[in-house]
Amino acid sequence: MKIDSLFRPLTLPNGAVLPNRLCKAAMEENLSIEGQLPGQKLFTLYQRWAEGGVGLQISGNVMIAPDAMTGPGGVVLQDDSHLDLFKTWAKAGRAGGAHFWMQINHPGRQVYAAMGEQAVGPSDIAVNIPGFDKLLAKPRALQSSEVETLIQRFAHTAQLAERAGFSGVQIHAAHGYLISQFLSPLVNNRTDRWGGSLENRARFLLDTLKAVKAAVSPSFCLSVKLNSADFQKGGFQLDDAKWVAIELEKIGLDLLEMSGGNYESPAMTGTTDHTKASKREAYFIKFAREIASVVSIPIMVTGGILSPEVARGALTEDEQGFGVKVLGLGRGLAFNPDLPNLWKAGQSSSVNLPEINWSSKTLASLGLMSVSKTQLKRLASGKPPKLKLSPALATLSDQLKNRLQTRRYRKWREA
Ligand SMILES: Cc1cc2nc3c(=O)[nH]c(=O)nc-3n(C[C@H](O)[C@H](O)[C@H](O)COP(=O)(O)O)c2cc1C
């Protein structure tokens, strides 16, 4: 009998084996408990996805430092004072034999002003979203010694993730967060060893991977999420991504996930013009294949995979074994956590995301995030996903929740 390509195990460069090719991509859950820690809701949510049959789960981004959060309901892992909670989380996500990797991140300048913290970035260039200029904090440029400290913090968080029982980490170098800011010539105008040439702009990412690798054991899986492009004139481009991928391969990487965009250009959820032409299905596949043609690291592509036909069509492998070998699903699994098991059973179940035709791309992107977060909240409470959701109501309720969580976060920081 022919084995379905989606359910063939994959041996990664470090020898670890993914049981199948379907990965729950990172989605910030906004479900931390007091102290920005994982609690019962996150345990229930990840156990639910594990039961749905994914081969790999990647957590929503976990922060390496408490003063730099992508959102007020995020998780921070900076020391081992609550490692037991992370152990329970790791166990829940690995139920049924799935791999569970922690995504580790620093937001850099993409921090909400309401959080009350000083944002930092490679340079003091603020995020520019017309009409929303007060939403995000104004950054100051990091000193070179601070960059070194942050690299060590990434490594320390990775080491803690391993101690907690996660089977790998993913360094978030996409979507306009700190590492992606260093990569972008539009955001990084430094003249020291961290800026200027692509080699210098990539130093933060490459040194972080080296530091993480030195801090964990060889069987612990290492991944990077990278933009195939920022989709901004003068920004990080596909050719840059190819060069970076080759350098990552030299250091050693088990999986490279390709995505795109940032807060100014939200291509990651298919809300920019380049995605319309491809009908919002596997919209980074062309870019992911280009990257797969230059490195032997297994490539994962994420974005717009909602049906088994699109998923199967996205997998590739050439004679040398290079290819797009893993598929990341975010919103698909928020709307139906059972997709892997259903597809394995031969069903053609697919997900129809709500259409959001708001004229503001920023608001539309926010709406898309909010409907998914509503589903995560339901799954985390043991409820089934809701088939019909009002994007406007979901966005409003998400904003309200954010406000309460921001208050809680600020109190925690002041204590
Ligand atoms: C609610 C939500 C939260 C997200 N949080 C993260 C995150 O923490 N880290 C990350 O790399 N990507 C994050 N993403 C982007 C997804 O990983 C993915 O790249 C994007 O949703 C496109 O894939 P999809 O079409 O399968 O949803 C998030 C997406 C959504 C919808």
Summarize the structure in words.
It is built from 14 helices and 14 strands. The strands form 3 sheets. An 8-stranded parallel β-barrel has the order 3-4-7-10-11-12-13-14, surrounded by 5 helices. The chain has a two-stranded antiparallel ribbon with strand order 1-2. The protein has a two-stranded parallel ribbon with strand order 8-9. Mean pLDDT is 94; it is low at 274-278. The chain is an alpha/beta fold and 415 residues long. It has one domain: TIM Barrel, CATH 3.20.20. It has helices at residues 40-51, 83-93, 144-164, 178-183, 198-201, 203-215, 238-251, 273-276, 285-292, 308-314, 331-335, 339-344, 361-380, 391-414, and strands at residues 10-11, 17-18, 22-24, 56-58, 62-63, 75-76, 99-105, 119-121, 139-141, 168-173, 221-227, 255-259, 299-302, 324-329. It is globular, with a radius of gyration of 19 Å. The protein binds flavin mononucleotide. Flavin mononucleotide is lined by residues 25-28, 60-61, 103, 172, 174-175, 225, 259, 268-269, 302-305, 329-332, 369, 372-373.
